[in-house]
Amino acid sequence: MHDWRDRLLGDPLPWLLDEATPAVRHLALRDLLGRARDDPDVRAAQDAATRTDPIAAILAAQDPAGWWEKPGPGYATKYRGTVWQLMFLDQLGADPGESRVRAACAYVLDHSQAPTGGFGASGVAREALPPPSRVIHCLTGNLLRALIGFGWLDDERVSRAVAWEVAAITGEGATHFNAITPGPRFRCGANEGLPCAWGATKALLALARIPPERRSPGIGRAIQVAVEFLLSRDPAVADYPMGYGNARPSSSWFRLGFPSGYVADVLQVLEALVAAGAGNDPRLGHAVDWLLEQQDDHGRWANRYPYAGKMVVDVDIPGAPSPWVTLRACRVLRALG
User: Fold this and answer.
1) Does residue 73 contact residue 111 with C-beta atoms inside 8 Å?
2) What value does the CA radius of gyration of the chain take, rounded to a whole number of Å?
3) Rounded to whole angstroms, how far apart are CA atoms 87 and 258?
């Protein structure tokens, strides 16, 4: 019988299930072994993860009001401000029912959302909403993905953020373009107005988390636009539109890492396309081959973009085999079959 691990040079699953790293074990049980969220082993691992770094250290650094480092929209500093912690907690598999996680979700919705619905990249140290001019795809996608993952899809503010994302992608409906998001189809001021594949990846990961039965026709069209854009280039080459005279793709595309901020890598494009149901597209073949080439002799992947020294707590040793990056890769390979 075919097993997704047949393509690996070694079996990393016992390593990923080690009780010494309960946050990794929690997600490996759920995402690689298919255990239900209410499975006793899954719940035990998630409970242990809450008490263990890195999740414990992040939660311990939180102000009782729900913010990190300073009150306000929370974009600064990178990567210790409020919005980053919410993204990272989601990627680490933090418990949605944990009171401090819920406080973080509520704080971001109260303070990081612009009046137009998207989330704004503002780092001011005061509790003022970010202006519409600071709303950008990568931040909105990252926060939407986290909020949906933490169970806030029914919140009216999350619905407004989804509406902003859909309109900004398709150009349909009540669009609110600005200098940093100057037009539809992922145009980005930080990329000289050209479409940004990093932003597209984050947006697609967010929208793909909405259950299919709850997707409006507009959400479906936005997902399709994102899929078509990310497949318009070979993800293994990542020669997406580049502004400001750049002739070669950013090296960050090819440095697999964890956690993920606004930068995307080849693996995250695969993650987004698989989540959106496009995993069988033959145009992913080179990217999958590239991913397999990055493993070591034990079927593990290294963290080459770890934000070392920049976070509340380090997650990995830079350049060393990483259970987190390995988990990311194995999820994709399992989904592809």
Assistant:
1) yes
2) 19
3) 11
For the chain, the domains span: 4-336
Contacts of 135 (CB under 8 A, 6+ apart): 114, 116, 117, 118, 119, 120, 121, 164, 176, 178, 180, 181
Residue that has been written with the tokens 């503002």 in this structure: 122
What CATH number has the domain spanning 4-336?
A: 1.50.10
- How would residue 1 be classed by pLDDT, with cut points 50, 70 and 90? low
Encoded tokens for 14: 């016992």
Backbone dihedral angles phi then psi of residue 301, each to the nearest 5 degrees: -120, 145
Q: CA nearest 163: which of 117, 101, 108, 197?
A: 117
Q: Per residue in 158-183, is it b (16+ CB within 10 Å) or e — as a string?
A: bebbbbbbbbbbbeeeebbbbebbee
123 Cβ contact partners less than 8 Å away, ≥ 6 residues apart: 72, 73, 74, 75, 76, 77, 81
Residue 83, both tokens: 């919005």
Q: Name beta bridge partners: 135.
A: 120
How far the first Cα of the chain sits from its last, in Å, is 11
Residue where the block lists tokens 């507009």: 218
Once rounded to an integer, what is the mean pLDDT over residues 61-80? 97
pLDDT grade, residue 224 (50/70/90)?
very high
Q: What gap in Å lies between CA 136 and CA 113, rounded to an integer?
A: 11
pLDDT at 123 > cutoff 70: yes
How confident is the model over 97-117, as pLDDT tens digits?
999 999 999 999 999 999 999
- The answer on pLDDT for 64 being more than 60 is yes
Determine if the pTM surpasses 0.90.
Answer: yes
Q: Tokens representing 270? A: 């695969």
CB 94 within 8 A of CB 49: yes
Mean pLDDT, range 133-160, rounded to an integer: 98
Mean pLDDT, residues 309-331? 97
Helix (H) or strand (E) holding 302: strand 301-302
pLDDT for residue 126 = 83
